[in-house]
Structure formats: C-alpha cells, structure tokens
Amino acid sequence: MKKPPNVKPFASEDRRLLQYAKNLLANPGLVAQLTNVLGTPIEVAIKRLPKGACKRVNDTLESALLKCVRIAAKTMGDSTDERSWNKTHLGAVVVTGATAGLLGPWTMLLEIPVTTTIIFRSIADIARSEGEVIKTGEGLQECLKVFALGGTSKNDDATESGYFAVRSALAAQIKKGADFVAKEASKEGTPAVVALIKKVVEILGMQYSEKLAAQLLPIVGAVGGASINAIFMGHFQSMARGHFIVRRLERIYGEAVIKEAYDLLPEYEDIVPPLARYQ
Asked: CA within 20 to 30 Å of 165's CA: 9, 158, 240, 259, which one?
C-alpha cells in the first residue's frame, strides 16, 4: 500500500510520544478513581442526593464554563509555554476542596465556578504548551472537549475506541447543535461553543454530581474534599496532556495517520516519558 503524499515518516520518538499519550488517555474514569479512594460505590451515594440537585449542578456548570471561555479568550496569550503549572493548579483546587469540606458539602455549588475555572486554566496551559492556539474558537473548543474524556459512562476507561468515539460524537454534536442554539448564543461564545458546552455539561454534570454525592458521605470532610478535588484535577490534566499530544502529532502527520498508529499501539506500555517536561 502506497504511503499518502506529503506524509512524513513516523519517527520512533513520536511513536513513544503517542504511546505516552495513549497511556494517559487509558487512565480509569473518574467514577472508578473515586470509588477506589472512598471504598464506597458512588452509585449508592448518588441515590442520596435531593431531587433537583443534579439540575442545579448542571446549571452552575454551564454558567461557569461560559465564563471560563470568555475569560480565556480575553486574557490568555498564544505563546507556547512549556513550564509546568500542574502542581500550582493542583494545589489551588485542593485548597478549594478542603474549604468546601470544612464548610459543608452544599458549599460545593459555590465552589464549582472556582474549581472549574482553575481546571479549565490548567487544561488551556497544557494545550498551549503543546502548540495549541488558545484564543481561536477551535482551540477553546478543544479545551472544552477534555472535560468529556474518560467519563462518558460508568464503565468508560477512555481506551482508544472510547477516546476517538468521544471526539467524533462531540464534533457531530457541535455541527448539529450550532444552528439550534444560534438564536440563544450570547456574547460569551459562538453558537458552536455554546452547543459544545451544553453537550459537555451532560457528561461533566454527572461527574460533578458524583463529586457532590461523594462529599455527602459521612467519612468525607476537609481531607476528603481536598482528595476528591485532587482526583478531579489529576484526571483532567492527564486527559488534557494525552489529548493535546495527539493533536500536536496530528498537525505533523495528519489525523488519519495518527489514528491508525494509535489503534495499532498496545493499550498500555511501560515507557519512560519521551521528554523531560513530561516527567
């Protein structure tokens, strides 16, 4: 089979980088991580949530994400920044989680905008370090997509089929929903961005509801709230790094080449991160 024209040979170093991305994207979903830490099935805690709690979480999230996009579009530069802010962002959400744990789980509705903004900023920083142009509509949409990775179902573990399936589903949703929300679009975002946020909130809202349910458990206090927020931040940082590594390689080799190479890689391979900044 002839190689497509203008496609560069796939370098062995880039193969390692793609494997590293796949390792990150194969991390267990948030439900599995929360269950492992708490030792209690989240499904049990979800049933204890008052009626209407999930809708309040979703409404709060949608508003928070719209503001995140608006702020990022106005304040973030496009220069590639390879410094790692992961620990700084992690520390910030740990503090907000601990505070919510001390004041009571229902303060989470006030915590959501703060935590979500910090997580979004961390995702955007990772995207920028991988060469993504943040201020464009496409760049902002790719940051939003990260919130939908590794959490589409209770059993989702973001394997290769899940990763590309989520990307494909979100792309279709944007195209389908953009015209529908055009009349409702506000200055915070284009119709496509608003459509994507609505779709992402369907997935992310369930994850935040699981977070709220976990914080309602008697065993969870300030330490538990901090730990739960740390899990959230760590998860989305891993999803962002994996996603934007794939995106960077796609810009070099083309989407079809990277998709084929990704599918041929093992689900997980114990390798040393290919660059020092990933360690």
From this structure: 9
